Amino acid sequence: MFDHGNQRVVVGMSGGVDSSAAALLLKRQGYDVIGVTMQIWQDEEENVLEENGGCCGLSAVEDARRVASRIGIPHYVMNFKAEFRKYVETYFIDEYIHGRTPNPCIACNRYVKWESLLSRSLAIGADYIATGHYARVERLPDGRFSLRQSVTARKDQTYALYNLTQEQLSRTLMPVGEYSKEEIRAIAREAGLPVAQKPDSQEICFIPDHDYAAYIRKNTDADLPTGNFVDREGHVLGRHLGITHYTIGQRKGLNLAMGHPVYVTQIRPETNEVMIGEAEDVFTDTVFCDQLNWMAVDGLHGEERMVRAKIRYNHAGDPCIIRREGDDLLKCTFPGRVRAATPGQAIVFYDENDYVLGGGTIR
């Protein structure tokens, strides 16, 4: 038995099995554990949230409270709606309006689940915050903190956490990263936690019906006009519903009678055009990124470095050469091409030992 009894940790409890197991594991290790459920967007009817399994829905509060009672830890609800609106919802809408595809989970992790929750947790005397993410926080020999991919690559969540700072990592515990999903469910089941078999939450919690364009239209005064689908030569192929309906690599929902599958290859907000191309047009060997955040290293030293890069959450990663092009700009060259590198999404770099070196935003 570990003894961390003089160390207090606030566990962000979403009402799901992963964060519940995190709280249980830390309690077993002897930490003084406090459970906190973050209210960030909930205004909908509870039955809607139940049906869609939202990770931060109203029903999550009751599930987390039942788990906390079973484990024997205090549980509180903290309101982060203002922070979520500012850093996640407003950003999400603005990116789509400007022709990019945002990653709200990355923004939420960086600015709400860590920056805001950590600040409040330290204010009540906590030493750490903890989550149920499948990732491992490790301190490297040079003193820097980094994330390492979880023991089960299939469930690894480091991609969505690449933007955390050194200070945030130094105050973070992620006990779930040492286990597979099956092992976590077994631990929860054996402990009698009421959420042991609860299904995983949806990808974007605040849009349960996944109709992003309708959500954006409802929450902005911006003009979102229809426009032209065009090919590479500028020929008009048809009319689109508005650029917020599309993302790079999209094939379905275009309603173009071309006689064969075609894909979105570029979104041009300045002319309100969506460019259409063939399957091979969606592949590229060069990606540029900015808004860099370094993790295992404090920057790119030397002219270039070979890494493994992921360009989306479910991308296994491909060999990539990164080269500095400016103070906050990298050129990423893939010896083998990658499909649908999408502006607004993250590109995350890993070393040969599965540590997160850093990452940035695709431009």
Give a topology summary:
Blueprint: E1 8-12, H1 17-28, E2 32-39, H2 46-52, H3 58-71, E3 75-79, H4 81-97, H5 104-123, E4 128-130, E5 135-139, E6 145-149, H6 166-170, E7 172-173, H7 181-190, H8 212-218, E8 227-230, E9 236-240, E10 263-268, E11 273-277, E12 283-294, E13 304-310, E14 318-326, E15 329-339, E16 346-350, E17 356-362
Parallel strand pairs: 1-2, 1-4, 2-3, 4-7, 8-11
Antiparallel strand pairs: 5-6, 8-9, 10-11, 12-15, 12-17, 13-14, 13-16, 14-15, 16-17
Helix pairs in contact: 1-3, 1-7, 4-5
With helices defined by DSSP (H or I, 4 residues minimum), what is the helix count?
A: 8
* Widest sheet, order of strands: 12-15-14-13-16-17
Q: What is the terminal separation in angstroms?
A: 48 Å
Order of helices and strands: EHEHHEHHEEEHEHHEEEEEEEEEE
Tell me the overall shape: globular
Describe it.
This protein is α/β, with parallel strands linked by helices and 363 residues long. Helix content is 25%, strand content 29%. The protein has helices at residues 17-28, 46-52, 58-71, 81-97, 104-123, 166-170, 181-190, 212-218; strands spanning 8-12, 32-39, 75-79, 128-130, 135-139, 145-149, 172-173, 227-230, 236-240, 263-268, 273-277, 283-294, 304-310, 318-326, 329-339, 346-350, 356-362. A six-stranded antiparallel beta barrel has the order 12-15-14-13-16-17. The chain has a five-stranded parallel sheet with strand order 3-2-1-4-7, with helices on both faces. It is globular, with a radius of gyration of 22 Å. It starts with 7 loop residues before the first strand and ends with a strand. The model is unreliable at 44-54 (pLDDT under 50).
